[in-house]
Amino acid sequence: MIVALIQARMGSTRFPGKSLVDVAGHPMLWQVIERVRAAATVDKVVVATTDKPSDDPIAALCGDEGIPCFRGSADDVLDRFYQAARAHQADAIVRITGDCPLIDPAVIDKIVSRFRHGDCDYASNVLRYTYPDGLDTEVFSFSALEAAWREASSPAEREHVTPYLRSEKFRRANVESEIPVARGCRWTVDDPEDLEFVRKAYAGLPRQCFGYRDVLDLMRRKPEVAGAQCETISNEGYYCSLYNQAKAGSAAKRPLAKSVEWLERSKRVIPGCAQTFSKGHTQYVQGVAPIFLSRGKGCRVWDVDGNEYIDYVQGLLPNILGYAHEEVNQAVSAQLAEGHSFSLPHPLEVQLAERLTRLIPCAEMVRFGKNGSDATSGAVRAARALTGRDRIACCGYHGWQDWYVGSTARNAGVPVAVRGLTHPFRYNDLSSLNALLDQHPNEFAGLILEPMNFEEPIPGFLEGVKELARKHGALLIFDEICSGFHFGLGGAQELFGVTPDMACFGKAMGNGFPIACVVGRADVMGVFDEIFYSFTFAGEVASMAAAMKVLDILEGSDALARIEANGRTLQDGIKVLAKQAGLQGQLEPIGRPQWSLLKFRNPDGSESQLLKNLFQQEALKRGILLLATHNMSAAHDLVAIQQTLSAYAEVIKTLAGWLGDSNPASHLEGAMAQPVFRVR
Domain 2-232: what homologous superfamily? Predict the structure, then answer.
């Protein structure tokens, strides 16, 4: 038997009594009951409320309407659901909340049908939100519910029923909307403003059997119905519960003796003790951070002392599928067995190039490299050769080569003459670029920029950069080393519909295996026949085999959708935790979910290195490895996200207390991280 359990109570904090407010002449809960009853796959509808006297009116409504009503614990909602399901002999449960009066019977039937395939314990439309918020439907087996009831231990898991069921312990399936729905459609009733929208929807759609497509159509026909719907955070109550249950206070340091030993050995033989500045020990709070890692799997790494971390650095962004991905490693292993650095070109070079020209809008021809700096430097050299000009305008970070790094604070060893040829301009500020170009007319070979990092391009910015490049006879180069593949297979250029002359890709392309490329129009790329862009390992095919397998997975699975969905869950949780702590103006995730940045600010809005370092310190001690970004991979599953948010709840609650001290810096347990230089 499939039993729909409608969760309802009168004691909402934000909107007390909302379950019985009037919607089209009936209590809102009555409307929810009637719509769930219309689902063909549901055998019985039961309202699950609390045993508090304040919820007597809900029980009375159910009695009047002949609806079974189960009453149980107000705080242990998981127990309430389990006892209700057992009492009504449910084989499967459909969980609906009583504040969703636009719930669609057809959506319920679709998710129940998916559950009936038999290959999952839990099916829903909430693992990735593609429906409006307010159509949330979760279907799970009684055996899965019983396991969660028996095993879930945290107050947040007991209060919110399904977080435990959404973990990797259970087989899960997500059902997605067939039609695109803009994020921010808020159809649940959390406050009086939401109720006004619902009432307008019912008034505009008098048929009781209307579905979500009808509501969307009404919103298109009558925009005044939707009003100013704001961005919604789903599962906000769960994040609040994480904060409430979190224990504040400094966490214990992890044992790091072996890391320290390796650091001392490294100091004797490796300048800087690392091959990459951003991977060095100076980038973390010293004394609490691991210094050497020994292995990784998925989204987790282990340091040389055996400490485990959820890793949000992911090798500085390349591991889009996570560490040690079996399919990628198998593809590389198979190629290694056949050889991988040949004396002549290999067919894989052609196959991968052909594939990239199909995926990337500007790509008609391709040249490969090993690092992002190879690609950006090759593109700049090509622009200079093609135009006969020397100057380059840049915006963002573009690697270690002289032409770029000479424009930064790390310019030691770069000739003054070279430094003077590269001119930074400000992102989203066309006037700064226009001024540069006007100062040196007919001297700029190219404009290179990251089309997006943590700040969205304002309308017309990328188009304006392209127009200025054309006007001044310069080539437009998109540095997509970071944005490439994370924001879609065609990169930011496909996302925003602006096609450059050339573009540079790398990082995620090989899931950690070293490979990069310059792509562009055929007439532009032809100059590579003339310039010197040539090195021994550019045609190394083991990394190309990795890239082919990565593209297979990204094209043939939901990996990118999962990265975005789980990244959004992480961002949403951080926003709620910061708000609960009173730090919403001082701690904020910015950027897209796939690659976001934590901003740390003082009360006056200036950047706070102290807050950043205190956050990093306490996160590290709780098993979260991060710089300041969340570099999401497909391996960052819901279990990792929930563990991260539980840790962050403790960290943020701790910081909220420390910031009230007269000397918050006294809580630092080591030297603060030292920035390499600032470019974003």
Answer: Spore Coat Polysaccharide Biosynthesis Protein SpsA; Chain A (3.90.550.10)
